[in-house]
Amino acid sequence: MTDKALKRIILIGNGFDLAHGLKTSYGDFMTWFWVEQVKRINDTESKDWKTVSKGENAYKIYQKDDFFDVKFHEKESDNITNYDKPQKEKSERVVPNETDCVNASDNQGQNQKQKFTSVGDFQKNIEYKNKFLEIVEKRKTLQNWVDIEELYFEILKNCKDRYKQSESVYEIYTVEQLNKDFSDIKQKLSEFLKKRNNEISGNNDYRDKLNEDIVKKLKEIISEGNPDKVIFLNFNYTNTIFELYKDIPNATEIQIHGCINDNDNPVIFGYGDEISKDSTDIEDLNENAFLENVKSIKYVETDNYSKLLGQIGNEGLIRENYYDVFVFGHSCGNSDRTLLKALFENKNCEKIRCFYYKDDYNKTIDNIYRKFEDKTAFRIKICQKNKEQDVFPQFVGESPFKDEARLLFATETEKTTEDKYQVEGTPIGKEQSEIEKYKKENMVEVVFDNASTAYNNISNKVASKKSLKQDFYIGKYQVTQKEWQEIMGNNPSHFKGDTLPVERVSWYDCIEFCNKMSDKHGLRKYYNINGNDVTFNTDADGFRLPTEAEWEYAARGGKKSKNYEYSGSNNVKDVAWYYENSGTRALKDDEWSMDKLNKNKCKTHEVGTKQSNELDLYDMSGNVDEWCEDRSDRDSLSRILRGGSWYQIAWGSCVSYRTDYLSSIRADSNGFRLALTP
Questions:
Q1: What is the pLDDT of residues 511-528, one digit of tens each?
Q2: How far separated are the first and last CA of the chain, in Å rounded?
Q3: In whole angstroms, what is the distance from residue 116 CA to residue 82 CA?
Q4: Among 16, 34, 256, 338, which residue carries the largest CB count within 10 Å?
Q5: pLDDT confidence of residue 56
Q6: Could you list the residue range(s) of the whole structural domain that residue 263 is in?
């Protein structure tokens, strides 16, 4: 260690606020956003709703919202409940009539307002104006704020391609509309965080409990080695540092992305990976609209970045002296790549120490690794993981911050509490187990009906009565590369992308993943694996592959089946990524060849972006073939695959299509989804 003065830079990310009990996660925001929209629409006056058409197909519409139009049809109005009228049985919900909803001259009608009882009901009756919000809602894999910034950049790249080619295979809008939609979301974010920020001030009981649980411990960590100066490099927009840590000697805070209560330090929300080739291509367009949300450009509006880089006076924070970096709740993702690269690769940076919570350590270290061109420097600077000392402390008391009223997301069951709203099966204030949360967010329960049969048109085999005997859970989406990486620690896929389906996995690889998922969630393993010898624990509750009968029953829509040719539609393009539409231009079935497939850059696509089937399952047709549990009829070394893939013509995406591969084969067209026995 040098004898120069040591400075300590503390990277503050969203995990820091979450550790202090603040409900500021991406999920918290989306819950707040949708509940606020439902409350606001429920409070609208009847006169603001108008009848668009009359007769049997009449519907009413509310068009005064910036994010969406809200409408309901007379035939679908069981999704709407009028609280001002006595409630009937759930199967006979009251249907608002025209005077209830529209007729402004009827005083009684004006006072009776439509009430959506769930976010799920509400979302079924909207048409999006804000396309960015619509894409966010379709991407069920988004989990963190950095995912939203990276999504913006991804769409911006598609806008770039459309701008250059004057046409695109992507269903994306103009950069001007993208920026407006993104700005509207940012405005809502500021509104949400202002509310959260105000909850800290004046809550002495909360502050006392925080001091006991976390603040004292963090102050001790921050003061290790007696640094001459501490710089909180705060990427959050809240005042947590100022409220709780302002008494640390020789401490300075830089709110690099702005502060919600400071007009001189405006909120910055956008992308900061200007190093990538895509960023260079965007610059070369010479179109300023593409640069509207570039962080480096936004930084010049304040002196925050110049302070950090030590470019003003003698108070430079990183240029003049040696420093170390402590990471507190920051993912170090690529949306801040340019800034973090400058910070980490600076010759005066001596070490980087990553504090972690639960299983986020490896993800953060991977992101830090990506910031280094000199990998030797990375190995020298990064501190070895200390499982005892590097665990980030957490607030363990009951959060004083009032939860937003949470609405029932499923529409088939309605339950009410004193607060009117609850998550399905879980009253407000009660936590679901981790596995119940996982099933709710990522799986669909399929109820078996003996009256239904699932025919395979190729084998003429009746799959249901013979092999399907009970209800089961099946994954909404194909397993993604991000999920695989988190469980297995590697990514074997040919086409890289966190939200793309994992591929190049054998049947044996998949069942190993299932067992490790079971370990993670405290379930009994379904598979006994001894090399290539595999037996099933049929009474286990762990994750597994679906049987072929389960897969086909679910693909056809179960009890809700409409007998579509493909899973969810008779139009393959609505539901499947396959040979014709998985590349840069549309192809035809009669054009199939390996050469054309490669030249057209056909590939997998993000899960969940096509239309779902009757059970809200995605990609049961196309994208990647899915391994099933069953052996092939032809030989004992092969296993069944269902669903078709990006590689195949439309016929392969039919729900009746089946094929098999050797269980040990790893192909870039093969993936899987999970199943569970209730």
A1: 999 999 999 888 999 999
A2: 57
A3: 8
A4: 16
A5: 63
A6: 6-25+196-381
